[in-house]
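Deliverable D5.2: sample structural annotation.
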Amino acid sequence: MDVYVEATLDPLGAAERGAAAADWFEKALSGPLAELAYQEERTEHGVHSGTSIRQSEGSRRLRLSHLGRNRARLKDELEKSPDLVVTEFYGDDVLGRVQSSYFPVEGDWSKLVVALQAGPARLADPTYCTGLVEFLAQALDALDPAFARIERDVFSDWSNIEAVLSRDLDESLPEDREFLRGYAWVTVCPGELAQRLGGAAALSASGAFHRVVPLGAGGVLLQASETVSGYTDEVMERVFTALAPVLPEGEPQADPAHPTMRFVPRDAGRAH
């Protein structure tokens, strides 16, 4: 897979977690994963699905083998706020995934994920890339997220900043409205940090972003370039400079454990 979409919700978020997870799955399955869901329902092109649900209370586990026949049941299970729900589509390999899970940090942070195989042509297609952005904007509009991103070839709980500054999640999550956790092709900045940057109008006027989308419940979605493949080092430099005032300080060092993480090799504390 080559596209990774992640959103983090914290205790200050605007929505109940179970409802947020159910809505995330529904929008993902009707949006970026709609083609795979359609093929799985009709067993076309050898596409199958599997869903794993884990609830820590009583160590309850449940597996659903066919999404097309179990979509209503999946929604019911999601609304119960289980610890982990993962639906995967696969053929010879994994083709797509949608996931909801909780971080083990004070029990109040949750992560929503979509990952999929798009391919180089789609990652250079403005229409396809706009669809990814619209999905994330619509999914988060009522949630007041603490952080979100769309990356290429990155599949890690850690953002680029967390990896290159060796910031553990138990450090960065409680500070997610004090410091921005990272930056990517698409970055969602929480409202508290967007205000420190001058708000959506100032971010748009900075010229660092292709598109700036204010979210209804708080926060701003920042799209760096029209397409994923257009997120060049020059574009990333502009994004870093614009967001440096709310990034954690420190001299970044490449992490061999995360070789695909892209970052600007400068201390954000000295960039503004």
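Annotation notes: The longest strand covers residues 94-103. Residues 119-272 form one domain.
The annotation will be released with the project's public dataset once the embargo ends.
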